[in-house]
Amino acid sequence: MLTEEQNRTLTEVGGGTPMGELLRRYWMPVAADSQFDENPVRPIRLMGEDLVLYRDLGGTYGLVDRHCPHRRADLSYAFVENCGIRCNYHGWRFDEAGRCTEQPFEDMANPDAKFKDKVTIKSYKVEARFGMVWAYMGPAPAPLIPNYETFLWKNGFVQIVFATIPCNWLQCQENSIDPVHFEWMHRNWTVRLNGDVGPYGKKHVRVRFDEKFEHGFVYKRLVADMPEDHERWTIGRICLWPNGLGPLRHTEWRVPIDDHNTLSVTWHFTRVPKEREPYVQETIPAWEGPICDPQTGRWITSHVMNQDFVAWVGQGTIADRTQEHLGTSDVGIIKMRKRFLDDMDAIARGEDPKGIIRDPEKNVCIEMPIIDREVYVDGLTAAEMMNDPSLDPRAGYPLQAGQPDAVRFAYMEAMGIDPNNAEAYGAGYLTAAGATTSRRIWT
Length: 443
Ligand code: FES
Ligand SMILES: [Fe+2]
Known about the structure:
Layout: H1 4-11, H2 18-23, E1 28-32, E2 41-46, E3 49-55, E4 61-65, E5 79-80, E6 85-86, E7 93-94, E8 100-102, H3 104-109, E9 123-129, E10 132-136, E11 156-165, H4 169-174, H5 181-193, E12 204-210, E13 216-223, H6 231-234, E14 237-240, E15 244-245, E16 250-258, E17 261-271, E18 286-288, H7 304-314, H8 331-348, H9 373-377, H10 382-386, H11 405-415
Parallel strand pairs: 11-18
Antiparallel strand pairs: 1-10, 2-3, 3-4, 4-9, 5-6, 6-7, 7-8, 9-10, 11-17, 12-13, 13-14, 14-15, 15-16, 16-17
Bound molecules: FE2/S2 (inorganic) cluster (FES) and fe (ii) ion.
The site of fe (ii) ion (FE2) has 5 residues, from helix 5.
C-alpha cells in the first residue's frame, strides 16, 4: 500500500515531476518507421506534451512542439521539406534541432534583422532503429538506444503493434513483474472464456525476483510438477527497465502519453522456418489494434495482451494504491516501486538511473536472459514449428486482436503459408474487427 503522495510521485509523468524526469532519461519507442511512408507528419502526445513527429524528404526525423512559435498554428498540418518541416500558415521552416531555418516574408522584407535566428521551437532527439522510431526527451547528452540481442536476430518477420490504453502507465508496467497473473488472467480465464469449466492450469508454487540484471528485473516462476531445471525457473523473463517487458520474440513497452493514457508498443519477431532462409524483410509493417469490441462496448478479451489491457484499465485511470493489499506474489512490484524511488534520488544527486547505456562497447549486442534461445538463434524447420502450438506459424498473431489482412498476408508469405488455404492459417482466430470465434490457451 502506498500513500497518496507516493502514488502521485510514481505515476505523474509531466515535465518537472520526479517520475517524468526519470522516464525522460530513457529512449522510448513511440512510432514505427513504416508509418511515415504514407503520412510523414503525425501528431503525438508524449508524457503530457503535445508534439509533432515527422520524417522529412531527406529521411531525417524530427520531434517538435505541436504549435508553431510564430502564431501557434497546428504543425500536425505542416508539410515536410528536404530538410525540416514547414508551417502551412506563413511558411516558417524548422529543422530537427529546433532551429528556424526560413521565414519567407521576413527574410525578404527585413533580411538584416535575422529574425529567424532569434526564434526556436521546442525539439527532442529522435531516431529510427529496428523498425521503430525512438524519442529522447531528457537532458543532454542522450544515452544510447539499447541494442538488445533480439533486435539483431536474423531471418525473422517483424511487426510493430500499438494500442492506446486509457489508463496510467505504471499499472501497465506493474503487470510486467506479475508472474501469477499468467495462471489466472491468461490460462484459467481463457478456459472460462471458451465456455469450459476446466481443467485449470497448474498452480504456481514459487516465484522469485532478481534485480541484479542491469536492464531490468528478472522474474522466475515454478508451477506444480515443473522441474527446477526448467528455463522458466533457471532463466526467467525480464521486466525491462523502466517501462517494458521481454524480450523474447516480443518486447513490449508501456509509453506514457500523459498521466491518464498509455501507448502500448510491441516489437514482435517470428523466425521463418529454416526452409525459408535466408529471409530478409523489406518493410517492417505496423498496425494499431482496437481494444474495445464495437458490438458489445466491452473490452476485447480474446488475445493475450487484450486480456492484460482489461486488467490495466480495470484498475482505474490511475490505480488507487492507497486501497490495495499486496501479498507475497507482489514482491516484485514492491521492489520495482522502491527502485524507482531510489532512482529518483540518484537523479537528484546527478547520477544515472538503472539501465542507462553510454558505453558503445557495452552496446554492441546486449545479451538477455532468453528462454528457448536456440529456437530464435538456430531456427526450426516448418515441421518442427507446426509441432509446437506456441510456435505454429498457422496460428496467426497471438498477442493482440485486429491484425490487418495486409500484415497477415505478408506474414504468411514470409512463413511460406498459402494465403488461399484459410484453414491452414487457423481460420476463426480473429476477424478484421477484432472479434474472435475461438481462443487459444496461453500458459
Ligand atoms: S503560424 Fe506558423 S508560420 Fe505563422
Ligand atoms: Fe499478461
